[in-house]
From TrEMBL:
Entry annotation: catalytic residues: H310 (proton donor/acceptor), C329 (nucleophile)
Coiled coil: none
Identification of the protein by name: Ig-like domain-containing protein
Organism: Streptomyces enissocaesilis
Pfam families: Big_10, YkuD
């Protein structure tokens, strides 16, 4: 027993003037408080905090070594400490109407740590906006399909909004955004997507101030797959359409394009909508009462302004492949009601998906505008990136 107590005590207590052993009393200077001071703005328990620019974490007389900012669900805010250790900055805006807690640690020159814990709550927006996106989550699309966002409110802070949108592809390829006006943002690669590409859109708009006093209210991840590559070329002068899939010709189809007074746009156009049957009224696209066909079969939209590639049952069979008689659309032979699956129009409709490309050439018309439909491919890559 005596031996055991002596060993555990570390000192004989005989007053022999020893150093007290390895387990001796701490030196007085080891008890000094850290000189480092963690600073957090906004103040603890602050409310109605702005989602951008308000959160600032720093260190006086020391360096930050650890910073954690997270919401009540445990979602951590990305950020980084500066090289000199004096400032931590968030990588992006904060969410609106959200409570956050801050835990930050700094050390002084002697390595002594100082910590600070605070909470704050961001503002509750009175006015909000969202993005309506194309294509749909989980869809399979053609190689020409861009990611297209239409915002419910006009955006006056486009850089802030664009930072909150991320589009990635696997296999990886550079993807860039381009604004059309103040309410539309499209993303695409330099060339058509490769067949089989997996594309992911991440919207982190919650809390972004898109215009003064108007904040985003949307956090969403959208994924879609690029299917096989199908690009069809309409030669308006030859009255034909050549359909290529994965580089091989599937079929050459006789067509009728726009008449001399109502020519078809040239350029690369993406199929954005498909209808087994639809109504086409000339009054809705600037042609007055020239036509109103209530049962146009196998119709696929190529432009916002009304360009379609569709079935045509009212023109004589000899028209297709020999004359251009339409009001600007591309017509394929069909039957009324679209019941005959052997017609060229039915075949093309059944073999097309949203995002497939239809290229029109040799028409006596101008090139279609890039924002007229999902047709940003008609803009050079350099111009697109501006």
């Amino acid at each position: 027993m005596l031996l055991l107590v002596t060993a555990c005590g570390g000192s004989s207590g005989s007053g022999g003037g020893g150093d007290g052993g390895k387990g001796g009393v701490a030196k007085p200077e080891d008890t000094k408080a850290s000189q480092a001071v963690v600073t957090v703005t906004p103040k603890d328990e602050a409310e109605n905090v702005a989602t951008s620019g308000a959160l600032k974490i720093g260190a006086d007389k020391g360096r930050l070594t650890s910073v954690t900012v997270e919401d009540t669900r445990g979602n951590e805010v990305e950020g980084k400490i500066s090289k000199d250790g004096t400032v931590w900055e968030p990588a992006h805006h904060l969410g609106a109407a959200t409570k956050y807690k801050v835990h930050a640690i700094a050390k002084d020159s002697e390595g002594r740590a100082s910590a600070k814990d605070t909470t704050f709550t961001t503002l509750v927006p009175q006015n909000t906006f969202i993005a309506h996106f194309t294509p749909e989550d989980g869809s399979t699309v053609g190689v020409g399909m861009p990611v297209s966002l239409r915002f419910s409110r006009g955006i006056t802070a486009p850089e802030d909004v664009e930072k909150a949108v991320k589009v990635t592809a696997e296999p990886s390829v550079p993807v860039e955004g381009h604004w059309f006006g103040n309410d539309r943002l499209d993303f695409r690669p330099e060339k058509y997507w490769a067949a089989g590409t997996e594309v992911t859109l991440k919207l982190n708009l919650d809390g972004v101030e898109g215009r003064p006093g108007v904040y985003g209210k949307q956090t969403k991840t959208v994924k879609f797959t690029v299917g096989r590559s199908q690009v069809s070329v309409v030669d308006a002068a030859a009255h034909t359409m050549t359909v290529k899939r994965d580089g091989k010709v599937l079929k050459t189809i006789p067509v009728t394009a726009g008449a001399p007074s109502t020519t078809t746009y040239n350029g690369q156009m993406v199929i954005s909508e498909k209808y087994q049957v639809t109504r086409m009224n000339g009054a809705t696209v600037g042609f007055g009462g020239e036509y109103d066909i209530k049962d146009v079969p196998h119709a696929m939209r190529l432009s916002t302004s009304g360009t379609f590639i569709h079935g045509n049952y009212w023109a004589g069979a000899g028209t297709f492949g020999s004359a251009n008689v339409s009001h600007g659309c591309v017509g394929l032979r069909d039957v009324r009601g679209g019941w005959d699956k052997q017609t060229p129009a039915a075949w093309f409709f059944d073999n097309s998906i949203l995002g497939d490309v239809v290229v029109v050439k040799n028409s006596h018309d101008k090139q279609i505008q890039p924002d007229n439909g999902l047709n940003g491919w008609n803009m050079s890559w350099d111009r697109w990136k501006r």
